[in-house]
Amino acid sequence: MNTVKKRRADFNIITIFWIVTVFVTILFFTSSPVLAQYKTGSLAPDFTLEALDGKVFQLNQFLNKQQHLILFFMHSEQESSIAKFEEMVTFISDFQPRESYQIVAIIEQCQGIEAIIGRLNDLKEKTELPLIFLLDAEGKVSADYGIKNYPTILLLRVDLYVRKAYERFTARQEASFYQYLRFIFTSQKSKDSSGGCDDGVCPPPPGFE
After folding, report:
1. What's the pTM?
2. Beta strand pairing status for 68-75 and 101-109?
3. Is there a contact between 98 and 187 (Cβ–Cβ < 8 Å)?
């Protein structure tokens, strides 16, 4: 009799242990920011941020609104990331894509943000490109996305799935990035000014599938 009771007690303890283990595992994965990190080929995690002009934007509001969405993560204290953004804007302005697109800069807001606000606003006025500057207070969205290097650039499809990601932006990756932009964009400019690509369409970059 005692043996039966002991077995039942052991069974109950084991059952409770596994229930608690499963519960803790589910709780960990559903609350962990790892789930929010982007992954190439997967839906970009949604977020809500305030722009420089005070308007509030949610990533999901861009769903099916443009053929290409560029998320450009930069840091307000890293001059190099800001300079790379300006270079990208200049390239797109000169290339003049035919397709609809939106550029969203996500700025990790630390000290020195005031110094670049005027610089970014001037850039928007001069180029007249579809630019939106979002302030990532204390880097929450960047942390949720797992951004470790600036700039990090994500190219999203019309359905907001991540098409391509450029995380380190070394010289080689930067060259690949611009080659890929030439591939996915069709230039409105003439063949003579298309950078050697027929009618503004370049061959796919190495490794493109």
Report:
1. 0.76
2. parallel
3. yes
